[in-house]
Amino acid sequence: MTTARDIMNPGAHWITRNDTLQHAAQLMRQMNLGALPVADETRDNRMCGIITDRDIVVKCVAEGRDAATCKASDVIEGTPRWIDADADIQDVRHEMENHHVRRLPVIEDKRMVGMISEAELGRNLPGDQVADFVAHLYPAAR
């Protein structure tokens, strides 16, 4: 059985709600990442969202806001999704499809241990499931 742990990018890089978008962008550039989970330091560092490079551009830069003062909490929205490290690859697929997420944090013992992107999942799904996964994730592509 292939698990989330088998296909994830290991490592736990995250920012807090109060970190600036400039700091987030610098970390993304430094680590070659497209997204960072956001933790709420007032709630025992629980994940409260995910910020993407696109969020920074669309919700800050394009609106003429200053990334040096705009906080992660200003742009995150919705309920963060995650998957247990021991979850089966099909559970990963269903979580990403059902919630239309392209990156999924992997959690073990209440701590983030890695991240799965749509690319990692696609590379590890059986060939006959890849097109169906893409069609669910990108409904306009149908």
TrEMBL record:
The protein's UniProt keywords, in alphabetical order, are: CBS domain
Q: Which InterPro entries match?
A: CBS_dom (IPR000644), CBS_dom_sf (IPR046342), Diverse_CBS-Domain (IPR051257)
Signal peptide (UniProt feature, chain positions):
none
Keyword flag Zinc: no
Q: Which Pfam families match?
A: CBS
Q: Which residues form the CBS domain?
A: 8-67, 75-133
Classify the source by domain of life: Bacteria
UniProt keyword annotation of rRNA processing present: no
Q: What is this protein called?
A: CBS domain-containing protein
Q: Which organism is it from?
A: Actinomadura harenae
